[in-house]
Amino acid sequence: MVSVTRSVFGELPSGAGTVEKFRLQSDLLGVDILSWGCTISALEVKDRQGRASDVVLGFAELEGYLQKQPYFGAVVGRVANRIAKGTFTVDGKEYKLAINNGPNSLHGGIRGFDKVLWTPQVLPNGVQFSRVSPDGEEGYPGELKVWVTYTLDGGELVINYRAQASQTTPVNLTNHSYFNLAGQGSPNIYDHEVTIEADAFLPVDETLIPTGMTSVQPGEDIP
């Protein structure tokens, strides 16, 4: 059984809109999601002893999300990660984007999907957010309709991304949560270990642009 509750989280400056918080709760976990940037502001899960802890980083008030911060919990796009030199070519036409990370364009540009108010729709077991990115927004071609859906299924949080473009355009959406599995407020994550089952990885250059694909041998540790 999943419950969904809705509340006001804060007001944007200059009357730009109301940011809402949606609390999804099951017997095994709870998650708070904001309509500002489709942001996961809290994810509470139980440890081996049954104690609940918030394992993602975020802010208690809206002001924290409006200041300069590293995309805590937000959906980033149109394109997550970096586009080298803020330039790409589609169908023979070159497009230039805002440069906001060294020599590159990062996470959709100056005002990416993390910095906009989304339209929510409550579902029986979650919430769906939608928005229309107009043609030319942050330099990207074509109108892009986007839906991001968060649902709970027992102990699983599912995020579904869907986009519909009016013309060919790059799209690469993801959630940008930062995790501390010991619980928010714990000193650091330096003793945490993560295992990723992968056949290859992408090395990057000094500006964090991939340089190619490198195969991984079974059991190999990547520094």
From TrEMBL:
This is Galactose mutarotase. GO terms for biological process: galactose catabolic process via UDP-galactose, Leloir pathway; glucose metabolic process. PROSITE patterns: ALDOSE_1_EPIMERASE. Mutarotase that catalyzes the interconversion of beta-D-galactose and alpha-D-galactose during galactose metabolism. Beta-D-galactose is metabolized in the liver into glucose 1-phosphate, the primary metabolic fuel, by the action of four enzymes that constitute the Leloir pathway: GALM, GALK1 (galactokinase), GALT (galactose-1-phosphate uridylyltransferase) and GALE (UDP-galactose-4'-epimerase). Involved in the maintenance of the equilibrium between the beta- and alpha-anomers of galactose, therefore ensuring a sufficient supply of the alpha-anomer for GALK1. Keywords: Carbohydrate metabolism, Isomerase. InterPro entries: Ald1_epimerase_CS, Aldose_1/G6P_1-epimerase, Gal_mutarotase_sf_dom, Galactose_mutarotase-like, GH-type_carb-bd. It comes from the Eukaryota. GO terms for molecular function: aldose 1-epimerase activity; carbohydrate binding. It comes from Pipistrellus kuhlii (Kuhl's pipistrelle). Pathway: Carbohydrate metabolism; galactose metabolism. Belongs to the aldose epimerase family. It catalyses: alpha-D-galactose = beta-D-galactose.
